[in-house]
Amino acid sequence: MRSSIVKPLSVALLTGLSVLLVSVSADAQQLRQNRTVEPRAPYIIGAQVSGGLARDHIIEVGVAEVEVTGLVIECFNLNNASDVTIRNSNDEFVEADVTIEPTKLTIVLAEPAQPGESLSVSIEGIDFVQDGNATFYFVSASTPDTGDTAVPVGSARILAPARGNSNS
Q: Quick check: 128 and 161 in contact, CB under 8 A?
């Protein structure tokens, strides 16, 4: 008698749970499709390589609702970085004091970057450790509210282009 009650009850419970899961999943998909995320803090737009042998790395940072007064870009592989150039969204050169250390770039902008702008930081002379590896950059930004303290913005990954073996 006990199994005759438990079996139909289990089936009903599992059926109800399945319908609930399908309903929740459909609601989650609807939310994902209708969602628009507007960043409020500085954010990473993208990262890419340029130049001969892909030794120039470019990291783009978007400025959302708060002015940006400086950037700190950390990476384990900045030993051979020879020059850093910063441009705005109009491709104009941005004046800044740049300090290059073996694992960190510190950028202090002469004029704060305004909301809606973007900053393109070009780092020249990067050596990849070996072919096919990725280089990770950890980006932080300073704002008028944070003063000299840089707040984490995000990370950028640049993949080394695969090069063929010349000993063929």
A: no
For 141, residues 6+ apart whose C-beta sits below 8 A from its C-beta are: 41, 42, 61, 68, 70, 71, 72, 150, 151, 153
Domain spanning 43-159: CATH 2.60.40.740: yes
pLDDT digits (tens, 9 = 90+) for 81-132: 889 999 999 999 999 999 999 889 999 999 999 999 999 999 988 876 655 5
Which residues fall within 8 angstroms of residue 158, CB to CB, at 6 or more apart?
Answer: 47, 48, 49, 57, 134, 135, 137
Cα distance from N-terminal residue to C-terminal residue, the chain: 78
100's CB contacts (< 8 A; 6+ apart) are 78, 81, 84
Dihedral, CA of residue 125, residue 126, residue 129 and residue 134, to nearest 10:
-150
